[in-house]
UniProtKB/TrEMBL annotation:
<dbReference type="GO" id="GO:0004515">
    <property type="term" value="F:nicotinate-nucleotide adenylyltransferase activity"/>
</dbReference>
<keyword id="KW-0808">Transferase</keyword>
<dbReference type="InterPro" id="IPR014729">
    <property type="entry name" value="Rossmann-like_a/b/a_fold"/>
</dbReference>
<dbReference type="InterPro" id="IPR005248">
    <property type="entry name" value="NadD/NMNAT"/>
</dbReference>
<comment type="pathway">
    <text>Cofactor biosynthesis; NAD(+) biosynthesis; deamido-NAD(+) from nicotinate D-ribonucleotide: step 1/1.</text>
</comment>
<dbReference type="GO" id="GO:0009435">
    <property type="term" value="P:NAD+ biosynthetic process"/>
</dbReference>
<comment type="function">
    <text>Catalyzes the reversible adenylation of nicotinate mononucleotide (NaMN) to nicotinic acid adenine dinucleotide (NaAD).</text>
</comment>
<keyword id="KW-0067">ATP-binding</keyword>
<protein>
    <recommendedName>
        <fullName>Probable nicotinate-nucleotide adenylyltransferase</fullName>
        <ecNumber>2.7.7.18</ecNumber>
    </recommendedName>
</protein>
<comment type="similarity">
    <text>Belongs to the NadD family.</text>
</comment>
<dbReference type="GO" id="GO:0005524">
    <property type="term" value="F:ATP binding"/>
</dbReference>
<dbReference type="InterPro" id="IPR004821">
    <property type="entry name" value="Cyt_trans-like"/>
</dbReference>
<keyword id="KW-0547">Nucleotide-binding</keyword>
<keyword id="KW-0662">Pyridine nucleotide biosynthesis</keyword>
<feature type="domain" description="Cytidyltransferase-like">
    <location>
        <begin position="6"/>
        <end position="173"/>
    </location>
</feature>
<keyword id="KW-0520">NAD</keyword>
<dbReference type="Pfam" id="PF01467">
    <property type="entry name" value="CTP_transf_like"/>
</dbReference>
Length: 200
């Protein structure tokens, strides 16, 4: 059976930490493909300033274009309405019925998932895969994981992997303050940020 994962996120901007997580998931879960899914209009960030969806999509596209097992989807960025994860999973599971689907996201999303729209359907449609983030107790994460698995008869994978100390938030802050960020992301992504004067 083909095994594919959707890696959801704002990717504002995508950086080496995201690529590191993707490769760890690819190898540890023996995946055939990882599809990066830049969020279009995420309902939980409506009040935050988020870079235009198509620009974020282009940055991800250029970041993964030479990676054989990575691709990027414009599915959410081309939607006119809000982007809900369960809708995205419904679309892809119907598109490829014989594929085993995974969904990769941060552990913060696991802890908050019961506030997501139609979250039981998310857990039914895929194997939910979460990577750790600073500030989260592994003990509490595992408690949440087991509780959700038992309640919804689902499978959740916790990827306890060494993380690169990089965040999109800190990159945006560094750019605004005139600091170099070329060591934190693929060169082509850095070029887009410089050419379009993003985050300044």
């Amino acid at each position: 059976m083909i095994k594919k994962a959707i890696f959801g996120g704002t990717f504002d901007p995508i950086h080496n930490g995201h690529l590191h997580i993707a490769y760890e998931a690819l190898y540890k879960l023996n995946l055939d493909k990882i599809i990066f899914m830049p969020s279009g209009n995420p309902p939980h960030k409506l009040e935050k300033r988020v870079t235009d969806a198509f620009l974020r999509y282009e940055m991800v596209k250029t970041a993964v274009r030479n990676e054989e097992k990575f691709e990027v989807s414009s599915y959410e960025v081309t939607k006119d309405n809000l982007s809900y994860t369960y809708k995205t999973l419904e679309y892809f599971t119907n598109l490829e019925k014989e594929t085993k689907w995974y969904f990769i996201t941060g552990v913060d999303c696991l802890m908050d998932i019961e506030n997501w729209r139609n979250y039981p359907e998310i857990l039914r449609l895929c194997t939910f895969v979460v990577f750790n983030r600073p500030g989260y107790s592994i003990e509490k994460v595992l408690e949440k994981k087991i509780s959700l698995e038992n309640r919804y008869n689902s499978k959740i994978v916790f990827l306890d992997i060494p993380l690169l100390e990089i965040s999109s938030t800190s990159i945006r802050k560094d750019v605004k303050e005139g600091r170099k960020v070329s060591h934190l992301m693929p060169e082509n992504v850095c070029c887009i940020i410089e050419q379009l004067k993003l985050y300044q």
